[in-house]
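seq:
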Amino acid sequence: MPSESTKFLLTPELKSQFTEEGYIVIRGLFTSEEVREIRETFMEIAKNGTLPGYFEPVSEEEANGEPLLIYPRILYPHRIIDVARKYMIDSRVMDVLAEMFGEEALAAQSMFYYKPPGSRGQALHQDNYYLRVEPGTCIAAWTAIDDTDQGNGGLVVVPKTQHLDIQCPHEADRTESYFRDEVDLPEGSRIVPADMKAGDVLFFNGSTIHGSYPNRSADRFRRSFICHYVGASTLKLGHHIHDDLHNRHGEIITVATNKGGDPCGVEFEGAPH
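struct:
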């Protein structure tokens, strides 16, 4: 792992792509050993069964054919798991984000997704609809813990949508998406697969439309470690994350709550992705 004094710098090409397209993939940002540490940490949690308040799976019988109930996502693992917190504020990730934001980044949220075979996907959406960052937006860092492609439900992105306003979602097709929200695509948009190798990290703007389709593979998980970040000048955030921001040194920062309903006038209690 790079020392604190060694800055991980973006190439001019990647900077340009992020500005113009709203996303980039940095190949091999994490080593195979680091990916293994993340994978084994979360698979050990799954093996042990229940982590109250964070990981509460049901039996196969209770799941009734829904794999995501047997392997539910874990929200905010950085609050209780040292490995999650370590990689959330990894210096390489924070260096990339500082270049994108033009200022130091603050980690706002972490998640781990198992997405076993047979799992539904997540309909197209925008992250800042949920984080409600003011001013500006958030940036996601989506780390592949397995090789991902469209066969096992890898992510897709819609280039150039980072310039859009936040869209009001409609009800998604729940046979394809476990997530209720879906946004429409602007005319002429194209959906691009973000196929990745384990250790690759996809960074994307909080307004960039993205999502995933079901994991149709027979035996491949599509595990991922996902964190959301905001710039240090952020003044307001959604009430579920406003008081738990971490700087690159692990110090906790608090900002004001963005009160009231979401941008479409609906009160929101959950978490994105």
